[in-house]
Amino acid sequence: MATQIPDIKEKIGMATSYLSLGIIGFIWLLVSKRHYYDQKDFIRFHCFQSIFIGLLFSFFPDAIGIIFSLISQILGFIPFLLPVVALLAKIHGTLQMVIKFGSLAMIVYCVIFCLYGKYTNIPYISQIINRMLR
C-alpha cells in the first residue's frame, strides 16, 4: 500500500465505518465526489475491511447457530443422546458469546488503528482486502 497520510476527517469517517459495521464505509464510497481510484488507499482499505467484518459479524454467528441446531435436532431423535444435546446447547451458547466478544474486540482494535491513521493487520481478512485492492 502506498503511504498517503489521511486527515482527521478520513480517520474519523473510517472509525465510524467500523462502528456501523461497514454501512458508513459503503455510503462513503457511494457518495464520495472522488472516483474510486482517486480515493486514498487508506480509505478504500478500511471501507472494504469494515464492510467485510460487518458481513462476518452478521452472518457467521447465525451460520454456526444453524449448524448446532441441525446437529441437536438430529441427535434429539436418539433418546439416550439427550445429555449430549444439552451439552451441545451449552457449547453453542459459550461459542456464540466468545464469537461476539471477539468480534467486538476486533472492531475496537480496528477503530483504534483507524484513529492513529494506520492499517490493521487481521489474519486472512486484511490479506483478502489487500489482494482485492491491487
Structural account:
With 134 residues, this protein is mostly helical. It has one domain (8-133). It is built from five helices and no strands. Helix 3 (41-76) packs antiparallel against helix 4. The longest helix is centred in the middle third of the chain and has 36 residues, at 41-76. It is elongated and about 65 Å long.
User: In percent, how helical is the residue content?
Assistant: over 70%
Number of DSSP strand runs: 0
Largest sheet: none
Give the low-confidence spans. Answer: none
Shape: elongated
Along the chain, the helix and strand elements come as HHHHH
In the residues, how many domains can be counted?
Answer: 1
What is the distance, rounded to the nearest whole angstrom, between the alpha carbons of the first and last residues?
A: 9 Å
What average pLDDT do the residues reach?
A: 86
**DSSP strand content:** under 5%
Counting DSSP H or I runs of 4 or more residues, the number of helices is: 5
Which oligomeric state applies?
A: single chain
Q: Nearest-angstrom radius of gyration?
A: 19 Å
